């Protein structure tokens, strides 16, 4: 009874690019021979869009536009109905990752409202008495490297009470001055975000300085859209009352899966931003926002 | 008086035979045969050949010296002086290292070190670790705050990238521990350490049961504890404890990835990233990504640092770039320097070649240093009631460690640059301190004068200066500054040290500088230093809190001054010793002095200064020995005392001796048997030595001295526990007193031993076994009897009162059943009595008139003896009669033969009754076939031979009347 079905991809990191061949083996392990009605593999790449609850009421009109978008699909029969011998059986397979028409394989991305996911599913059909077996496995797709050369776009910034927006009562603010620099807002996704920051003065001691990585996902089209910004991760870069005048490094690794090269399509958009958040001891929260552009090279 | 004995009517009247002792000697003496050097003879002096390897410094690998001593070697001193196995081992190691260091293998080793980056001369973290743990302690209550499920909401779970399986597992874990916030308050330091150890264990368990996420969580939570600066005094220790956990974690991860690499064949220890398979690389990357997304700064840094070594699996370039990233990331947070030290530690481990990052690290640190004086830090310190100097000291291990890493095999230029930087920072004391302790002592020593200048310019408020001088002193203790500067340095340093107000600070610093003083200066300077220390430590009994340091001072002085005449000529040395007023410490100190003395003083000395001082030391030590003192310590002290007195030639002039004796007495009264026995022997030896010096003619002074010796023994002996030691010593001392013409003393000794005899138990334990005392007793009494020959009778007592007293004791003693001991002693006494009745005694004590001259063969005296003999013979005969039973016939025979022999030797057998008695005894001994034929035959031969002597013709007739038994 104990028959197991598994998919093993050739690449340990499960990362593939458009035009490459997704190769691996289907592994069947069983103590006795298994009778089956055929084993098949199906590969699929889908963009799932979802509306946030706050958008639902407003944009019911274009509900239709948020149905899943299929990027790629394929189906092959690996083994014809018959019998798999007892023991471990490995059946190799290959899927060429070719897209039809002018479709593009977007990079794998796990977000809140946008999900781009590639799966490989193996099914073993069996007689009525035995349950069908199936196994799903996700594989990653990295989009094609960008053709043109990426130019660094450094940003210098200064944060003082005066530079702040959205302040209710500017007079209640303690005095502070923070200067800094992001080495580039156009980032290579595999390289960390770098820069440095100097607390030049602060009336109230600093409690913490954090880097907040934010995704901005937009669903919809020209008629109307929902745009939501949510936090991916928050990385503390300084704790306590930092030494004034000392450059503090800004350093953040982009998490895999949760980030992808900045993506803009007709139906949806995935963009990223970083917030430099300074928390003062009196719980004042000072946020400076920087839009980022992520690339894969 | 002999009332018991005289009562019985005896059948035989005694007549002693006249013994021409000199003629007998001449006739009976065998010529001595000289023994050749090579011949074996059991009585030849023991020759000891001892082969000892000389110090490794000598060129000739080892030379063996053979020394022959006239007496057996002193087992104790050989134990203490000899090369002990440990130092032999060390010497061997030293030997081994000398050639290799310069030879080819040395170069190879150096190359290997280059490869590894760190040589054996690098003080490893592990030693620092225990140092820190021991130094930074607290009595305040600590708390541990662990939020096991806290991460869930805030950051996207770092593990979710791996696979569905991990994701679900993670969620399960989260559910399991959601809100399982554990807060432990009021932990003592030990509790805290235990808790951390528990965490370490649970980390290992989690790892072993494949709960990697849980393991990571534990590590993160632990490193979070490092951002808590409450109870700041404990922080360095906390740091050490927690980095231990991190180390464990780093090792686990590394090992796991390493095993993933070895698919089938074992994976080599030295590998390059190309050898690593994709799965392993992917796992490794996963770890780094997971850790990179840890929200909080400190856990992220620490955990990343912990697994930094794993970069080896990815690429070489990674390591250096990440290290510099890490070092850049290290900013802010209180006590960030600790964090830096961790980096340096890991840096050293991963890639010791990357000195650049270390240097930059250090310079960054200099910049951050100003932070210490910021308001927030000050407020925090105020809150925790920590003074700035105390706070700064918390930094010292970290700064020290970094500097050690930086300066390790660093070029001079770099060190000079560092020094300059420190100067620029206004001679920051903390840094200066670490520079002095971390840089090579030679470097510091060469610039000692500069350093003193810098120390003087330091800000007084921040870092205590005595610590700075302490560090400088430590450097100078192991490396020598230029000769010309030395005195200046000492003066400058001591000027500051002597002004320290707190005794604790003072002694900590002074203790260090004593070494420098001893190393380069004479006893004069050391003496000055000692008197200064005494001056500082005496008020308010400050020394009570400084015993370890004071002991260390003594140790250092002993290391450099091994000539005791110099050592003890330091006036303040003994007063210094007086500061040790706690018994255990005082014993310890005295002991170390004595040990050094025994080691260094090979020849016996008679230098009065040494003797006086040493006696003072011994006395001090002795006074500190209490009943409670550990037996082991007592024993070792005994040995020491023994050895010391073997080394000292005490005899010099009688005056000194008396003093010495009194001191010796003072020194010993608390010690048990062996030492006391030794001293009694020594005192007796002293008396005999005096006698020899005076050629037997005591002056008034010496006579008084020998009497004092006797008095010493007389009062010491009763305190011995072993009864036979007492008896033998009484006897010995009696003999010595006699030899020194102290008649009444001798009398007292002998009387004392006689009156002690009834107390001898019938059995005593020898080596833990119960044995009959009879043998010992017989031996002693026989010995005693032979002494009695020369003891003149006391004028106020009756004739032979000592002999009578002894005989009475023998008679009343409860001997063992079925024992002939009593009778055998009677026979022995018979011999004595016979000897006493001679005209000229067999031996005499020069200048002492024995009974022979006192009585001059007075017939009354002889009659008295004869009467005693009759009684004794009667006693023996009575006893023989009781042995007539079958089972005692053998004893009867032997005893009869014994009495027969005595008669032959001592009795005048021309007397018919005695003659008849002898014949009867002979036949009694032969009658039942128990006589030893060979002895009988030889006795007969002897008698025949004797008959040829003048006046002995009657022996031939006697021989004819002695039939040998016939064997049936």
Automatic annotation (TrEMBL), chain A:
Task: Provide a GO biological process annotation.
Answer: intracellular protein transport
Q: Does the keyword Secreted belong to this entry?
A: no
Primary localization class, coarse: other
Establish whether keyword Glycoprotein is in the entry: no
The record's keywords, sorted A to Z, are: Endosome
Q: What does this protein do?
A: Component of the commander complex that is essential for endosomal recycling of transmembrane cargos; the commander complex is composed of the CCC subcomplex and the retriever subcomplex. Component of the retriever complex, which is a heterotrimeric complex related to retromer cargo-selective complex (CSC) and essential for retromer-independent retrieval and recycling of numerous cargos such as integrin alpha-5/beta-1 (ITGA5:ITGB1). The recruitment of the retriever complex to the endosomal membrane involves CCC and WASH complexes.
Q: Output this protein's name.
A: Vacuolar protein sorting-associated protein 26C
TrEMBL record, chain B:
Which intervals of the chain are annotated as region Disordered? 40-118
Q: What is this protein called?
A: VPS35 endosomal protein-sorting factor-like
Q: Which organism is it from?
A: Lepisosteus oculatus (Spotted gar)
Report keywords, A-Z: Endosome, Protein transport, Transport
**Would the keyword Protein biosynthesis turn up in this protein's UniProt record?**
no
Where does the UniProt annotation place the signal sequence? Answer: none
List localization entries: Endosome
Q: Which InterPro entries match?
A: VPS35L
